[in-house]
Amino acid sequence: MTAMLEVTGAEVRYGAVPALHDFTISVNEGEIVTLLGANGAGKTTTLRMISGLHHASLGMVRFNGVDISHLAAHNIVELGISHVPEGRRIFPQMTVLENLDIGAFRKPRNQAAKTELFPILKDRRKQQGGNLSGGEQQMLAIGRALMAEPKLLLLDEPSMGLAPMFVRTIFEILGTIRQQGVTVLLVEQNAAKALQLADRGYVLETGKIVLQDSADVLLSDDRVRMAYLGEDIEA
After folding, report:
1. How far apart are alpha carbons 147 and 142 in whole angstroms?
2. What distance in Å separates the CA atoms of residue 40 and residue 42, rounded to the nearest whole number?
3. pLDDT tens readout for residues 136-148
C-alpha cells in the first residue's frame, strides 16, 4: 500500500505542556486506521494537528508526499483532507442543505449526489440542523465533510452519545465510505467496534504511541482488552 498520510516525530504543545511528543503514525491509501487512548491522551490533538487547527512545533506531517505541517486549515481541505470534529459542530440555525453547502463551498456539487449515504438527510433537508436528533446531526456532520470530496476523512468520536441504532448506522456508513475510495483515520471511544471495522490501530498514551498493530492483533492483545474493551484477563 501507498502511505497517504505520514506523521513523523511530531510534537504539539499547549504552552509548556506537550500534548504530543515523538509522535509517528502512517495511514495507507484505502485503509481505515483507528487511534485508541484514554481521555486526554492526545487523540483529538492528533486530528487537529493533521487538519491544520494546531501546528506541530517539531516533526513533520506529509499528505501524499506534500509537507502540510504548517499549512492553513483551508489549504489542507483543498488538498483533500476533511475533519469531522468531536461534538459534530454543525450550524444549528441553518438548514440541512445550508450546512451541506458550507461543506461544498470550494467544490460546489449537487447535494443529492453527495448525500446518497444519508437518505434521512434528504427528508430533513429544509429542517434546521439544531432540530435534528444526535444521530442525524452526526450524519449531517459527516455529509458536510464529504461534500469537499476528501481523499482522507478524519473522524473524532462519531458514536459519542448516540443511541445503539445510530451507532450501527454510523459504522455501516464508514464501511461504505471506505468502499467508495475514501481513506479514514478514526478516533472512537467504542474500541471494539472501531477495531472490528479498522485495518490497523495505534494506542496512544500521554501523547506518545505505545502500541501499533493490525486491528485483529490489537483485539486479542491483553493490554488492549483490559484497558479499552473492559475485559477482565485472568492471570
Report:
1. 9
2. 5
3. 888 888 888 888 8
